[in-house]
Fold Ribonuclease.
Amino acid sequence: MNQLLPYLEANRLEAGCDEVGRGCLAGPVVAAAVILPADFYHPLLNDSKKVPKAARPELAAYIQENALAWHVAQAEVEEIDRINILNASFLAMERAVQA
């Protein structure tokens, strides 16, 4: 939490959030939220759909090591069936951001 304090005091804390699994026919929908420092840079971090598959584990580790905070959350199949895939996506994203 200490590393977040300067950002909180400056009212400059923003989280990026995205989901995967929304197009799948089975399984949960998963979302991740990440808060990166203002000076964060990695040449591959621009468009997640353009990141080469082989580079993803290295990039994920780099983000996790350098992020101010990050979390992965999901909405289960039963929740998708009950509230629909769109709302389940929002629920997974909300859980990730809240964590």
The beta strands are 16-20, 29-35, 69-75. The longest strand covers residues 29-35. The CA atoms of residues 19 and 31 lie 4 Å apart. The helical segments are 5-9, 56-66, 77-83, 85-98.
